[in-house]
Amino acid sequence: MNKLLYVCVFLLFSLNAKALDKLSSIPEPNQKLLNSVVKELGLSNTNKEVKEKIYGIFDMSLEGQWYSYWVGNGDLEKSKFKGDKVRIVELIIPNNNRIYVFTLVNFPDANQIFYTRRQFVEGSSKLGLDMFEKAKENSKLKKIHEADNYGFFNEKGFVSFEIYHVKVPDSMVSYIDCGIVDTKPTK
User: Which of 20, 39, 76, 164 has the smallest count of CB within 10 Å of its CB?
Assistant: First the structure.
């Protein structure tokens, strides 16, 4: 009876430990994409912590039906930086709701990745104008520029932007932010 209890407790803890590992719980297509991006960045031998941070840059785009395409250092025919140690990935992911574009640049000497995330959402001009008016009232946003058919906002204290573009009968909202991922393990 005690052996059965020990086995049950062991299984309970081992299943919970596996659930805590974010990388092992992501779907196969997402895992393949992550591995491709990590490899192109020249970080194939990096640890799980760094891979999780890289995945966190683009995981929000992998909802519903999605498709991905990426371009790296060696994909441009006239590239003179194919073998450069600074690695670039331009990742494009359309899904059911919007289009995402991610730029990741690995600076190995600095042990950092600089990234930019862009989201493009289209809708009716009425919806775009309503969202623009809400952005003007949002105390976390600072209006940088406004013209007849667009407005440019910055999230205070961040490198994060919202751009509202309205051209009847349509509108587009762009969300753009930048950040850094440290590639040197903290452990």
Answer: 20
